[in-house]
């Protein structure tokens, strides 16, 4: 199974939705809370300048935010990326 990292903030509803989708699929993920400015800068650099949360990475692939991941799931592309 691929390593999943998700950059979040505690009050972000899209972050909660993304984590819920991953949990429903039985996927373990590493959550990185970006309240620290250094972590937010790291996220922005990894996400090609995107500053919004969540930012989701599966293995070496930047999936994007929750809407991107949900669309990928609807197209049937999420499970193969996760290694399921």
Automatic annotation (TrEMBL):
Glutaredoxin domain segment(s): 4-63
Any single Pfam family the record assigns to this protein: Glutaredoxin
Keyword annotations of the record: Cytoplasm, Disulfide bond, Electron transport, Redox-active center, Transport
Transmembrane segments: none
Source domain of life: Bacteria
InterPro entries, per the entry: GLR_AS (IPR011767), Glutaredoxin (IPR002109), Glutaredoxin_subgr (IPR014025), GRX_bact (IPR011900), Thioredoxin-like_sf (IPR036249)
Family, per entry: Belongs to the glutaredoxin family.
Protein name: Glutaredoxin
Organism of origin: Devosia salina
Underlying gene: grxC
